[in-house]
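thoughts on these C-alpha cells:
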Amino acid sequence: MKNDLTTTFLNFVLAALVILGVLFAVLSMKRTRDFRAVTPFAMQANTKAMMMQSLVSDVTAYNAQVKNPEIARLLQSFQPKPAH
C-alpha cells in the first residue's frame, strides 16, 4: 500500500514538473519573439543617439573656435546630468 501511495505522489510531482517545463518553454519562446521584434527599433534609436552625440561634439568643437554664448547656452542642455 505504501508503494502505491509513493508512486502516485511521484507521478503527480513528475506531471507538475512537465507542466512547468512546458510553461517555461512557451514563455521563453514568447520573450524571444518579443525581443526579436524590439531589437531593430533599439538599434535605430542607438544609431540616432550616436548621430546626435556626434553632432553635439562637432558643435562643441565649432563653439571652441567661435565662442558664441548662445551656442554655449544651448550646449549646456545637452550635457549629461550627474548621477546622484
Observations:
- The chain has two helices and no strands.
- The chain has a mean pLDDT of 91.
